[in-house]
Automatic annotation (TrEMBL):
One example of a Gene Ontology biological process annotation: regulation of cytokine production
Chief localisation class: membrane
Upper classification of the organism: Eukaryota, Metazoa, Chordata, Craniata, Vertebrata
SMART domains referenced in this protein's UniProt entry, alphabetically: IG, IGv
GO molecular function annotation: signaling receptor binding
UniProt source species: Anas platyrhynchos platyrhynchos
Subcellular location per the Swiss-Prot or TrEMBL entry: Membrane
Coiled-coil parts of chain: none
Protein name, UniProt field: Ig-like domain-containing protein
Leader peptide range in chain numbering: 1-21
Length: 264
């Protein structure tokens, strides 16, 4: 049944091919990146040598051969798809200039997929597609869990990542540590990380926990340890990419003195 629906939709798109490319064209980028929790615009523009009037705009999502209505605008009436009520809107006053871009609010991993923008009028019909990818990142928090064997156990945790992240612990001399890491996924498909590592006296210098995903997004937090003075300094090295900022928050712990400072 899904294969039949996909075939019918493909035929419909082929039938929507412009009569003359000189008169009109529907344009959109091939790929768009959305950030978890933020609004994302799916661009779609109609380029036409003729006035735009009495047009219909349809947005559909195509996922694994399944087709669902996202948004339909017809005769000044808008109709969002069942899953998109309260989450979609066309740009205000965009229709007059041929801008039929769709705003998708508060995006989540489930919104990933291929979106088709279909524009119809009495004289012509055309469509274009855009692939929406979703990325999510979050703050990294350090914790001192306490003594463990001949060293002290540290942990870093974070929640709200997508796609699935990886974790690295590194000391100042670039030596890689072997952490105990747990990664879980919640009902919204977001990943949470809890990673532990034990630091001995010989390694008590500067330790960094870095969490990153394959969307080239990363967050890291560094802890600087001083075994001689028994002071612990925490700092965040600043922004690592154009879309993420490394932040750190550290609770006090009875019996130790903490001095927090920011670098940069």
């Amino acid at each position: 049944m899904e294969q039949k629906n996909w075939l019918l939709f493909t035929v419909a798109l082929l039938a929507a091919t412009p009569v003359s490319s000189e008169n009109f064209e529907v344009i959109s980028p091939r790929n768009v990146l959305g950030v978890v929790g933020l609004d994302t615009v799916l661009p779609c523009n109609v380029s036409s040598t003729k006035p735009l009037y009495d047009i219909e705009v349809q947005w559909k999502k195509i996922t694994d051969g399944r087709i669902e209505d996202v948004y339909i605008w017809r005769n000044t009436v808008n109709k969002p798809g069942q899953k998109y009520v309260g989450r979609t809107e066309l740009l205000k006053d965009g229709l007059a200039t041929g801008n039929v871009s769709l705003t998708l609010k508060n995006v989540l991993p489930a919104d990933e997929g291929t979106y088709s923008c279909i524009v119809n009028s009495k004289d012509w019909s055309a469509d274009t597609t855009t692939v929406l990818s979703i990325a999510g990142t979050s703050e990294v928090f350090f914790e001192i869990l306490g003594p463990r064997g001949q060293g002290i156990e540290l942990a870093c945790r974070s929640h709200g990542w997508f796609p699935k992240p990886t974790v690295e612990w590194v000391v100042r001399n670039k030596q890689m540590l072997s952490p105990d890491t747990e990664i879980h996924q919640d009902s919204k498909e977001l990943f949470g990380v809890m990673s532990r590592v034990t630091i001995t006296g010989q390694e008590a210098e500067e330790v960094t926990c870095q969490i990153q995903n394959n969307m080239a997004q990363a967050e890291k937090t560094t802890v600087r340890l001083s075994s001689e003075s028994h002071l612990w300094w925490f700092y965040s090295p600043g922004q690592l990419s154009s879309t993420t900022t490394a932040l750190s928050h550290f609770p006090s712990s009875k019996g130790r003195k903490y001095d927090e400072k920011a670098e940069g």
